[in-house]
């Protein structure tokens, strides 16, 4: 019952954080110049106390406008379709002509789809973008049933169906396996919304190729170990009470421990910036950790099946992956464009693991294939930052345009 104990602790300490937050607001009323050094340190202490908790609510995307050509247009969010486990969120642009419809597939990981905020905003310049906005399982009642790897793939098929004929699909990291499986299933059944293009970015299509530390950890223990040590029950205070999940706070602990010294230094820097009144520097760090500490649980079935089928047994590249009782045949992928993107310094999904999709999709014509290895970037640099905006995105945009 570790998750229950963690939640109880958070609930019991909530008044201290609320008190620190209230005191901080009062402190901001003190005139500047009044014992700045003392008040600066006190302000930093109160700020750190008030921020000493995780949030389980999705942050805002905050995409209010985007540049289309040489003009700025307003963007509004609307839910085009929804299930208990996820929403198909549409970033609707005002006064813009028809653009290629695109489904941006976000990972179902320890963070929300808002992690792809920058990716979506860049894509919005030239595309009509929808995103898989996954819901937090701790807020989903057990009566809604299970959610496994096949359910994820089925959601992608349903979401693409909502976009109409010849949509485009871009999958980031973990969901690349489900995205390729969905494309194969839709091609084999001649689905009217089969994707015109599929772009896989830093995805674990075949993790037997140059295994990373993440891959090695997944294979270091039997699947029963993951079930017994990482799966827990949603606390009784939540709507999804007693649903089995891989808790977000456990995932975050693992992420933080991989770069513990860096995170400690960042928080020490944050406290110093606040104490010195360096608001812009403090805001940069706070913005990052507001997103980083917004955590999402994973359905137990989805997590266990992903570890087993993708990282331990490598079912897709071996032609053994099943969906609703039938094999997923990647040779069925045809009459569409296929683009794969990898990062030279990616220590989560190494070079070759995503490229493997090109070898699996033998029916895709050579002139519809594109592979790009981006020099000088790690995992997140494949889909965020300057290299993504200036070097990778133009290739993706042209690829989609040619195959629309």
UniProtKB/TrEMBL annotation:
One Pfam assignment: PHB_depo_C
Domain of life: Bacteria
Gene3D superfamilies membership: alpha/beta hydrolase
Domain PHB de-polymerase C-terminal: 202-403
The protein's name: PHB de-polymerase C-terminal domain-containing protein
Gene source species: Bradyrhizobium cosmicum
Upper classification of the organism: Bacteria, Pseudomonadati, Pseudomonadota, Alphaproteobacteria, Hyphomicrobiales
């Amino acid at each position: 019952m570790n998750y229950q104990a963690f939640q109880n602790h958070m609930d019991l300490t909530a008044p201290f954080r609320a008190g620190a937050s209230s005191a901080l607001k009062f402190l901001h009323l003190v005139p500047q110049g009044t014992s700045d050094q003392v008040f600066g340190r006190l302000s930093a202490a109160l700020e750190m106390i008030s921020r000493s908790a995780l949030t389980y609510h999705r942050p805002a995307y905050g995409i209010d406008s985007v540049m289309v050509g040489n003009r700025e247009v307003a963007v509004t969010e609307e839910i085009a379709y929804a299930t208990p486990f996820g929403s198909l969120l549409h970033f609707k642009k005002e006064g813009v002509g028809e653009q290629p419809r695109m489904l941006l597939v976000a990972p179902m990981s320890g963070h929300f789809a808002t992690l792809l905020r920058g990716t979506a905003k860049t894509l919005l310049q030239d595309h009509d973008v929808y995103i898989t906005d996954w819901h937090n399982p701790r807020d989903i009642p057990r009566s809604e049933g299970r959610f496994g790897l096949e359910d994820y793939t089925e959601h992608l098929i349903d979401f693409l169906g909502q976009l109409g004929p010849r949509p485009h699909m871009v999958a980031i990291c973990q969901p690349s396996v489900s995205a390729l499986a969905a494309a194969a299933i839709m091609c084999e059944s001649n689905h009217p919304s089969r994707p015109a293009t599929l772009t896989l970015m830093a995805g674990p299509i075949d993790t037997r190729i140059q295994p990373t530390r993440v891959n090695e950890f997944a294979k270091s223990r039997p699947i029963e170990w993951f079930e017994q040590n990482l799966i827990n029950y949603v606390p009784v205070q939540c709507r999804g009470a007693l649903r089995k999940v891989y808790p977000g706070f456990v995932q975050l602990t693992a992420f933080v421990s991989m770069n513990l010294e860096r995170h400690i230094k960042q928080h020490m820097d944050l406290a110093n910036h606040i104490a010195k009144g360096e608001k812009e520097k403090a805001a940069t760090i706070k913005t990052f950790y507001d997103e980083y500490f917004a955590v999402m649980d994973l359905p137990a079935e989805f997590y266990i099946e992903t570890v087993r089928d993708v990282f331990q047994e490598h079912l897709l590249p071996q032609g053994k992956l099943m969906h609703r009782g039938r094999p997923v045949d990647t040779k069925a992928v045809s009459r569409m464009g296929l683009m794969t993107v990898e990062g030279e310094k990616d220590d989560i999904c190494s070079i070759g693991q995503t490229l493997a999709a090109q070898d699996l999709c033998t029916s895709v014509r050579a002139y519809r294939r594109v592979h790009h290895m981006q020099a000088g970037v790690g995992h997140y640099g494949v889909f965020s930052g300057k290299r993504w905006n200036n070097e990778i995105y133009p290739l993706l945009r042209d690829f989609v345009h040619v195959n629309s």
